[in-house]
Amino acid sequence: MTENISGLDITALVHGGRGIGHHEGKAVFVPLTAPGDRIVCRVVKSRRRYIEAELVAVVEPSPQRREPPCPFFGSCGGCQWQHIPYQQQARWKEKIFADLLVRSNVMAGDRIKPIVAAPDEWGYRNRVQLKCCPGAEGLLIGFYRHASHDVVDVDKCLLVSPPVQETLDHLRRELGDAPSSRCVSQIDVASGDDGEVRIILHVHPQGRRQLRSWLRDFAANQQLSACLQSGDKQGLEVVYGDSDLTIKVDQPEIALRYGPGGFVQVNTAQNRSMVASMLQLLEFDGSENVLDLFCGMGNFSLPLARRVKRVVGVEDYAPSIASARINAAANNIRNVEFHAADAAIVMARYRDADPLDLVILDPPRTGNYPATGELLKVRPDRILYVSCDPATLVRDLTPLVQNGYEVVSSQAFDLFPQTWHIESMTLLRKINAG
User: Fold this and answer.
1) Domains with residue ranges and CATH for the chain
2) pTM here?
3) Is the peptide bond before 319 cis (omega within 30 degrees of 0)?
4) What is the residue-averaged pLDDT of the chain?
């Protein structure tokens, strides 16, 4: 028989977004709760030291709780914190981030700067991925239910930018009547700083030919660019329009174009904040030799190149490197070169090369652990680590701070309001660098 816990007091939020309370000496983790809630929850999993549970009812709501504005909140798995006012979300992210880093002994608390909160808690996403599934009444288009592959049909998402939402509205009205629409498994929609929009339909190969003609007509009518993709990025085909989008960073502005399959931060305003913070933090004198790993289309490399002697950017996705080279030429930035290669392999080549003043790391969520050993052999004067996962950040920082580096500062940036995800920027210095 499933056990309920009644009268559980939620005292805090933890990494992963759940609320935590305590029952009979065990920590109890409950999603969709807020500090100050008194709740009834149902035990889902019980271990020796902790319990995972699901919310049954809020008996006494916290003063920190608000009514979630989205009707899909709680069923759609995209957001975890809409029930918490944004000011409190930012405060808890700052605390969770600091606690993780201090408990791990990679830095002292006085090295952690205040979080940079998002200027907008709604409408900030410049791109979104929606899952598709045939349903009894037509094609379901939305997001996976939490911890499942069931698609929740979502007609409006409060997080996406107006150009993205407008395109989704048109797709929802028309895609169900398209030939072989049941072969569509995912829709990617992205917008650039100039309002241009790109869609990518992920399709089963057997429906590709029929959908190609429909998608070309749809894109022409909506004045956007469109692609089809079957399988991985190698199976991506542009069927209509200029597939590149543009974001802008730095002052004076640098326009950065990127193609389908290339990475860009989903929160354009906060990406600009991160670039500006990086440039202010590093205080260049113009003589620096910089290596930018996971450089993408030049988001950090090109603003850096304006201020240092030389930048080498490295990224394993070759189309992004092609975009980076085009961006450098278009912005008349000549002291930078880009290579499509694996980060760890490139680091190994620098063991006997010119000394590096700075290495920038902006890896995916899995982190950069394979390259850490090479970093310790090359030993640049400074390392700037941009992370989207505090847990892998701690893992990757640990061998560095145990082998001659110290953290100068670390700062969280909230790129993802309504969720528990935390972006951050951490600067390390070689202890004997002076």
Assistant:
1) 4-65 (2.40.50.140), 91-119+267-433 (3.40.50.150), 127-245 (2.40.50.1070)
2) 0.94
3) no
4) 94
